[in-house]
């Protein structure tokens, strides 16, 4: 019988099968049947990149190697699942070779932990320290159901997931000092950054099955993985000259990633899970979390982020910095960054992720069909108080036509970006109408950071239609007529939603807005009244929605 907490061979990873059934799989089972798994069934969106990076992808890369050409990638995709030979290699990797290193509660070498890790003050912390949505220390979420005084009993499966999550997303600032850590002072370490993903707006391409998702997150590396590049569970195989501190000990260092495997399994914390026997079986109630390795900088080989490119940078500033997601904006509103396939020729601008650029290249060479159901999962955390607390979690999912990722054929990408731009411009026109009506009523426009804006309601109203548009365009092929009809339908959607919102704004304006008032703006006297405001709004709407402008001629105003 396998010891409890054996991630390689015991069922612990929650998955959803192709038929929609929920179940638990072992790591080996999940990989072996990845072609029959729709997706991972994880408690929070930020856990998907953590499980992929800290576990699934490095196991596959190290056991099978990465493809060295897009042709080799295409052959793996055409298989639809791991071959019998590949499954044997995975079984050997998770069995005789490294199986004993995937045991969560091993006394000598627990997975992603430090055996015997002890705080300098001898104390342990509640397991809530691993879960950002639960109050612990300085991190006190507004609607947390538990306080730091409450117990949170994590099953081995839950503890494994939150362990991986902590290595990727843990908060910054002060950490408990560990016995054996020469850099700890006064029982603590300071200046700790967040986990590596905390500085990114994470972008994960997804497919129809877990196998396809694994492949879409697999980069083509012409020279293969470097011999010195090892995952955290095989750190002892690195050459001594590689530097760094072993992740199985309490010491840590600030260093660059030693390669793709090291980057994916980067141990940003030193952690020990403390299991306790309860009436429900083995549970993790207490933990020790100390400072871990600090990633010197995000390398340009990072798979799961888009970038901000800086044309004229300072001497100590990198040319590219990871791009973060914006709170309150749906993923489709950021299509400009997701579809930015080239470094801006002049000036600053976004540059999409390595994996999305690769997906477009694979489609261009015929390795991905034009109607492939590509999805994109985005997520991120917003930190506050010097990144010591989690203030907000951002997550979204989006269907994306692979044809929009073609570098040399930009017709679909241009059309999609036009649709997003139209929505943004109509939203601004609504905010302009709102500001003018407030002035006409004797008030002032809303400050930027206060109040609910009509643009937010409008964008929410058209959100579902944009997602259906993107999903429908995944099967468009080269049908330009269908695209034109889709764009016209989108403009109709925008116009109807905008007119509904405008009508509500006008109905809420007091009678005195009809007469209006005169005020000085930039030294000029301008008359603000409701009729004029509505006329300006309709003019702007006609300039933005040109396909339906003629059909709208003769329509009544929003009043």
Describe, in plain words, how this protein is organized in 3D.
This protein has 559 residues and is an alpha+beta fold. Helix content is 34%, strand content 17%. It is built from 15 helices and 18 strands. It has helices spanning 27-32, 47-64, 70-79, 84-97, 156-169, 210-216, 260-264, 335-338, 354-364, 411-440, 454-472, 480-508, 512-515, 530-544, 549-552, and strands at residues 13-17, 22-25, 37-40, 125-126, 173-176, 188-192, 202-206, 254-255, 269-278, 281-291, 294-295, 307-309, 320-322, 349-351, 375-384, 389-399, 517-521, 524-528. Strands 2-1-3 form a three-stranded antiparallel β-sheet. The protein has a three-stranded antiparallel β-sheet with strand order 4-10-9, with helices on one face. Helix 2 (47-64) crosses helix 5. The longest helix has 30 residues, at 411-440. The model has no long low-confidence stretch (mean pLDDT 91).
Decide which structural class fits the backbone.
alpha+beta
Low-confidence stretches: none
Q: What's the alpha carbon Rg, rounded to whole Å?
A: 27 Å
Helix content percent band: 25-40%
| Tally of helical segments | 15
Main β sheet profile: 3 strands, antiparallel
């Amino acid at each position: 019988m396998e010891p409890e907490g054996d991630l390689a061979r015991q069922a612990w990873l929650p998955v959803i099968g192709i038929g929609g059934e929920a179940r638990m799989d072992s790591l080996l089972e999940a990989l072996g049947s990845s072609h029959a798994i729709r997706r991972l069934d994880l408690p929070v969106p930020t856990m998907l990149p953590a499980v992929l990076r800290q576990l699934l992808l490095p196991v596959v890369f190290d056991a099978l190697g990465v493809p060295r050409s897009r042709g080799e990638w295409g052959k793996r995709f055409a298989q639809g699942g791991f071959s019998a030979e590949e499954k044997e290699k995975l079984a050997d990797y998770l069995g005789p070779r490294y199986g004993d290193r995937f045991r969560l509660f091993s006394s000598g070498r627990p997975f992603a932990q430090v055996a015997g890790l002890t705080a300098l003050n001898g104390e342990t912390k509640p397991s809530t320290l691993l879960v950002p949505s639960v109050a612990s220390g300085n991190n006190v979420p507004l609607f947390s159901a538990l306080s730091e005084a409450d117990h949170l009993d994590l099953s081995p499966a839950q503890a494994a997931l939150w362990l991986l999550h902590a290595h990727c997303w843990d908060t910054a600032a002060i950490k408990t000092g560990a016995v054996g850590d020469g850099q700890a002072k006064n029982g603590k370490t300071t200046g700790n950054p967040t986990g590596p993903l905390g500085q990114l707006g994470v972008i994960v391409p997804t497919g129809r099955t877990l196998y396809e998702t694994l492949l879409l997150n697999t980069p083509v590396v012409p020279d293969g993985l470097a011999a010195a590049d090892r995952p955290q569970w095989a750190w002892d195989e690195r050459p001594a000259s590689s530097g760094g501190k072993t992740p199985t000990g309490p010491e840590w260092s600030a260093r660059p990633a030693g390669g793709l495997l090291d980057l994916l399994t980067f141990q940003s914390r030193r952690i020990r899970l403390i299991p306790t026997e309860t009436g429900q079986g083995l549970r993790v109630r207490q933990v020790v979390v100390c400072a871990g390795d600090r990633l010197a900088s995000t390398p340009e080989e990072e798979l799961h982020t888009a970038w901000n490119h800086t044309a004229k940078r300072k001497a100590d500033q990198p040319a590219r910095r990871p791009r973060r997601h914006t709170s309150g904006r749906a993923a489709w509103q950021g299509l400009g960054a997701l579809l930015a396939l080239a470094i801006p020729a002049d000036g600053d601008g976004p540059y999409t992720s390595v994996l999305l650029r690769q997906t477009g290249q694979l489609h261009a060479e015929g390795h991905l069909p034009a109607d492939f159901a590509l999805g994109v999962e985005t997520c991120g955390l917003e930190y506050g108080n010097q990144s010591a607390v989690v203030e907000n979690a951002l997550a979204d999912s989006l269907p994306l036509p692979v044809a929009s990722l073609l570098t040399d054929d930009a017709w679909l990408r241009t059309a999609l970006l036009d649709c997003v731009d139209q929505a943004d411009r109509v939203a601004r026109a609504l905010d302009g109408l709102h500001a003018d009506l407030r002035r006409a009523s004797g008030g002032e426009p809303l400050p930027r950071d206060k109040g609910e804006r009509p643009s937010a309601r409008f964008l929410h109203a058209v959100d579902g239609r944009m997602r259906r548009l993107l999903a429908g365009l995944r099967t468009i092929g080269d049908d330009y007529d269908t695209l034109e009809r889709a764009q016209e339908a989108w403009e109709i959607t925008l116009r109807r939603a905008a007119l509904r919102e405008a009508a509500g704004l006008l109905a809420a304006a007091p009678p005195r807005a009809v007469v209006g008032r005169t005020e000085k703006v930039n030294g000029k006297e301008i008359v603000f009244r409701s009729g004029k405001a509505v006329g300006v709004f309709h003019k702007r709407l006609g300039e933005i929605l040109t396909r339906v402008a003629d059909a709208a001629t003769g329509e009544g105003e929003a009043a």
